[in-house]
Amino acid sequence: MKLIQKDIDKWGEGNITLMPEEPEDMWHAYNLISEGDSVRSSTIRKVQSESSTGSSTSNRVRTTLTITVENIDFDTQACMLRLKGRNIEENQYVKMGAYHTLDLELNRKFCLRKHEWDSVSIERVELACDPAKSADVAAVIMQEGLANVCLITSSMTIVRAKIDVNIPRKRKGFVQQHEKGLSKFYDQVMQAILRHIDFEVVKCILIASPGFVRDQFYEYMFQMAVKTDNKVLLDNKSKFMLIHASSGFKHSLREVLQDPAVISKMSDTKAAGEVKALENFYTTLQCEPAKAFYGKKHVEAANESQAIETLLISDKLFRCNDVKLRKEYISLVDSVREAGGDVKIFSSMHISGEQLEQLTGIAAILRFPMPELEDSDDEEES
Amino acid sequence: MARHRDIRNMDYEDEYDGYDDVYGHSVDDDYYISPSNRQFIYNRESSRDSRFEHTEDNIEEADEIDELTDTDKAKLLSCIDQINDNLGHTAIPRNDLIDLIMKFNFNTELVLNAILEDPKYNKLGTLQKGKENRQYLGKTCSTPNVALKWPKNVKSIGSSIQNNTQNNGFIIPKLFLQNSSESNNRTSFNIPNIFTSKEEKTINNKLINPKLDRTHQYNNVLNSQPNEYSSLSDLVNNHLKNILPNNIEKNKDNSLSKKLKEMRLDDSKQINYFNGNTEKYSQVDLSNALNMSNSLPNVKKTHTNKPEKFEIPFIDCEIRNDNVLTPEIEILPCTFLAPIVIEPQAARNKVVASTATNIVKGFNVPQKETEISQRSIDTIHKDRLDGTSRSQSPAARGNSPNSGRGTPLNDVDETKANRKESKVNPEAQYEKERGDCKDQLYMVVIGHVDAGKSTLMGRLLCDLGQVNKKIMHKYEQESKKLGKQSFMYAWVLDETGEERNRGITMDVGRYQFETKTKNVTLLDAPGHKDFIPNMISGAGQADVGLLVVDATRGEFETGFDLGGQTREHALLVRSLGVSQLAVAINKLDTVSWSKQRFDEIVQKLKTFLKQAGFKENDVTFVPCSGLTGQNLVKAPTENELLEWYKGHCLLEVIDKFRAPIRPVVKPFRFSINDVFKGTGSGFCVAGRVETGVLNVGDKILVYPNKDQTVVKSLAIEESSRVVVFAGDQAIVTLSGIEMQNVSIGNILCDPLNPVQVSNKFEARIVIFNVTVPITKGYSVVLHHQSLVEPAVISKLTSQLNKSTGEVQKKHPRFLGKNSSAIVEITVSKPIALEVYCECKELGRITLRVAGVTIAAGLITRIIN
């Protein structure tokens, strides 16, 4: 993302002009734009004009629209952001107050105006515009009969393909069927890798599985690559890494990202850092239950005594429609920072973020134990 | 309908006259008379006494529910539920209830009113409330109480009976055996219903009558010796006198004493009917009399008795029975044992449940037990109604796993001969098909990786002659070539090239062999940590387990200590329902058959297995060596071992396992663990019949997708069958469905009685040794039968006390290691499952995270 212009007054009101450059930037934009903001962007509209004779012609016009956002849609697969709302600036083609939908496009700048730019939003802009590129990683999590081909970017994990086939078990006299099923499965996984992974971009491809599936697959893939003379695969052979995982389900990615070999390879990826933070939280919960809390109520109570050392919070909480609630979370983040605590905003697109989301979306590791919190029982906003 | 005669104005004293007589003898008599038994049986048809006629004529076999439309059926069921909610489950016989509901056109309120107003049910209502209705005092005896009191009463009579018997040498008709053993799949819960009033007997259909009869006969068998009628009846009267006074005083019940007088009168009247070969009458009356007498002191207890008490009287009975035994009635004790062992389903279920509680500590579900029994009664009801004939339950022939006692087989054969077979009745079918076979036993072999499971079993199979010598030679040569000669036996079970090259088992291998009394199917589970999912699907199908541990110094320790699979496997199989375990201490030759080492390992394992919930006498330890074949099929030859080991060899231990009861009467369920193309058209699914029966040509549903399909053929281990039963591991060829619509973990089930589908359920779980606490939102891998699905623990409902099952904390923040809790689990997509108390097989779950089993549990509630 490129920051083109920033104009924020001392009350926090103002506008920022940004230019998304990669699909991931759309994710950032999705997190930045909330309902009630106004967005100005260029879009193509088909304009029909009727001549005096009554014949109508239609032509496509690129025009700039400004809308107040009422609805935001994000397509994770295509990384498309679609904003819906009322037009607030009339031009020659579009009337005031008409409903319009804007598709944000790559490499087209848009201007976002907020009534209040809070710290989290500004941080998000900075993060999005950080030129330090982290490695893009592809991962294939597999077990016999199941494979997930994922792309891991700094703030997103996208499952590109899921292969789920039945492999007949080995049985007397039917060993062949098992082996045939297995090679068919490997072939499908290989095709998925070729289709979905851009070897130009991806720095590293993790193949994770329990048992020997990964080795078998790796062997199979390169045998096939040699057979079919697949240059792409052969050239990138060094990018493949074989890692152990306990199952082929998506959440096993967490284990994969904890693997020391992976950590060293993609140290600056947000995903790995998040996984580690969450792991810390769980360890604390096990060892010193009075030092780890989750749920808004508990965390807020802990914050009041300035006890929070690390705050884990899912970015989904900032995306909520309720402005008041959003403000509460933001003030929580601010106050933790003020008190010298560390705030980790988890991307809900990552595995760890997904888990944190399940865990009420907010959790905290404290500086000192607060057993009294433990006793002040039972909230559970389910 | 006769049933709705004016009951309120009925003269009970009169009505009761005939009551005892009719209920005292079995309707079954007419249906199960083997030629050899006929002479012993009173021919009711020839009797002109009108009192007995109606018992048969009015019997209706038709299942009323079946004639209804679906909507009516649903209405009916909801009505029954409502009424049961109001009155409790045991309050009213289901058939009466259905009649009433039909009569009032599904109006629950009216039905309830009718029931509450009807004196016939009055007592039940009051019983429920804990009051007593004196009018029925004499009749409120319910079997539990009888049973409870038996020891006391019978002990006194017992001895005199014994004397009598020895004098007369009376032989009980074989019929009794059958009936008594038949009664064993009935619950005592039912019985109170029967005692409601005389009115019942006129309209009661077979369903209830035989039950009652059986109870009485059961008592007969207990009394066993009817011989000298007058003397014994005197004895009974005396006995009654002994007991009565207090009771009368206590209860201030005049009708009771009246009744008693009458009964005595009755007794003398009975002599009229009693001539020649109709001794049965005497028994009947006698048992009634006894029955009464027993009930009297109990009346007060009637409502306070809890089902748990069942077990005690039965044990007592067993002991007593031995006393009563006389050489002349050799057959008697055997069959008699069977009913004791299995009699009340409730008790059986309880035992099962309590075994489950061991692993799932503190999971006592006392309430559910009654439900279970109620349900099983219902199923039996249905069965009874469906089938035209009754037959022995499979349980009867049964080596019950819970009791440790078995019925000798020859006995079964005898009773079997007496039975009419019916296609519809699963029990009969089961008995017909499998009655004469050896018991089928599925054994899973578990243990730490490289403990020598495959080798041990390979060697066992070789020594049993199951493996062709030529093939063995081939394996030997080939393994030598690979430089892994020690793996030659393992190759018998490890068939894929991958497994052989790596020298580890990856998927469950299976093989069949026979022991003296069992047909054993061996499931060789992989030991490696990464293949535990495979092991779970294998163990989920097993009845018993064989835990193999490596005795080599250091090896046992790595396998057993934290991170080893010995613990995890043992816990897993226990939570998957395996309750009997043999432990093979393998590779003992490497420590030169040291007794010290053996004892050390046994000691460690014993404590652990006990914690894991195995009963001490369900675990057997066997020293052996898989590679050298010591102590596998033959007694050991090694002197060092002979010095101290006097026990059985492995094969004998396997032979000693008790085959579990197969739940054939339950609705059909089949869990798929493999889908493959067969040789012919269509495709095959392999898996285990969890409950019920499956015939070729049956229409079944594939859940959770609810696709209908037809069974084209059935096979067990390559041999084709027409019918398969619960417990079998069968290959089913399906037609009318696409192969890709069926996947591993799906459930095949009866369309009329489908399994539930949901993606959210509540479970009681026991958490093992976890490094990371379980919080809300914890993502796990759910293992349910052969299904593996990612799931999320979506809610921590409450934390339970491990031993008592009490709620310790509501909404705990997290669950630490070794705790027990109720949680809500959300699965990523809907799966087919059942509540544990309805179907044990489909109600078990295992949760794993990152290759470690973190918890096992039971499904308690399905949330839609």
UniProtKB/TrEMBL annotation, chain A:
Subcellular location: Cytoplasm
Protein name, entry field: Protein pelota homolog
InterPro entries: eFR1_2_sf, eRF1_2, eRF1_3, eRF1_Pelota-like_N, Pelota/DOM34_N, Pelota_N, Ribosomal_eL30-like_sf, TF_pelota
NCBIfam families attached to this UniProt entry: pelota (TIGR00111)
Xref: SUPFAM superfamilies: Dom34/Pelota N-terminal domain-like, L30e-like, Translational machinery components
Listed Pfam families: eRF1_2, eRF1_3, Pelota_N
Signal peptide extent: none
Domain eRF1/Pelota-like N-terminal stretches: 1-130
Single GO MF descriptor: metal ion binding
Its biological purpose: Component of the Pelota-HBS1L complex, a complex that recognizes stalled ribosomes and triggers the No-Go Decay (NGD) pathway. In the Pelota-HBS1L complex, pelo recognizes ribosomes stalled at the 3' end of an mRNA and engages stalled ribosomes by destabilizing mRNA in the mRNA channel.
UniProt keyword annotations, A-Z: Cytoplasm, Metal-binding
From TrEMBL, chain B:
Single GO MF annotation: GTP binding
Reactions performed catalytically: GTP + H2O = GDP + phosphate + H(+)
CDD domains in UniProt: EF1_alpha, HBS1-like_II, HBS1_C_III
Biased composition, class Basic and acidic residues, residue ranges: 370-387, 413-432
Major place of residence: cytoplasm
Top-level taxon of origin: Eukaryota
Comp. bias (Polar residues): 388-405
Classification via PANTHER family: TRANSLATION FACTOR
Family per record: Belongs to the TRAFAC class translation factor GTPase superfamily. Classic translation factor GTPase family. EF-Tu/EF-1A subfamily.
Name of the protein this chain belongs to: Tr-type G domain-containing protein
Originating organism: Rhynchophorus ferrugineus (Red palm weevil)
